[in-house]
Amino acid sequence: MGHQVIIFDFSLIRGLWETRVKKNKERQRKEKERLEKSSLEKIKQEWNFILECRKKGIPQSKYLKNGFVQTDEKILDTYGKNPQLQKRHALSDEANKERNKFIFQLSGEQWTEFPDSLKEQIYLKEWHVYNTLIQTIPAYIALFQDLRVLELSKNQINHLPVEIGCLKNLKVLNVSFNNLKSVPPELGDCENLEKLDLSGNMEITELPFEV
Question: Span of the secretion signal (predicted)?
Fold first, then answer.
């Protein structure tokens, strides 16, 4: 009984294998392109949704959940069909704008003194000045009779002017982390003062009896 010899054509097998590998790579490439296009489309969709929400005055908290955009058309419908919500949001924005008219804000080490234009805004109710190199509070602060809040933390202020006692409506005075060495007794004339923060002024050892 003779032996049968099986002969394999390895070049044919290699050709089939290479063809399969190429097809597999092609499928992977197309799938990658599909996913990329899908992601781009999703990003575009989310961005358009955000723009539409902003146009309708929808607050960010309504369309963001855990930092991700929720493209829920009901959000747009709710705000689109409920003018009361839109009106409420518009009123809130208007109220904020109105409030900001009475607030003065200044920060940055480029400032070494208060701007001259400030003396013309005696209607202000709040000053928020921080992280500047300003050393002196101008005497014309006495003109700001409506001033309620004076936040002057982290500057280089070295003294409080006696005119500060003219601020009869002042409720909050924060001059923490400056270079104050003392507090003028005139501060005791601020009869409505509810909060005083002098922390971080290391050379102040005591307050005047009037305060």
Answer: none
Report residue 130 as tokens.
Answer: 């921080």
Average pLDDT over residues 69-96: 57
CA angle 61, 64, 69 (to 5 degrees): 155
Structural domain including 192 reads 96-197
Helix (H, G, I), strand (E, B) or coil at 142: helix
Query: pTM here?
Result: 0.54
Q: What token pair was written down for 34?
A: 């599909």
Q: For residues 89, 94, 97 and 101, what is the CA-based torsion angle, rounded to 10 degrees?
A: -150
pLDDT at residue 97 in the model: 63
The DSSP code for 65 is: E
Q: Is residue 209 part of a domain?
A: no
Number of domains comprising the chain: 2
Q: Residues 140-153: pLDDT tens digits?
A: 999 999 999 999 99
Examine the domain organization and report whether 65 and 101 are in the same domain. no
Are residue 30 and residue 115 in the same domain, yes or no?
no
33-42, 130-139, 157-166: the lowest-pLDDT one: 33-42
Mean pLDDT of the chain: 77
Does a structural domain hold residue 102?
A: yes
Query: How far, in Å, CA of 78 to CA of 57, rounded?
Result: 12
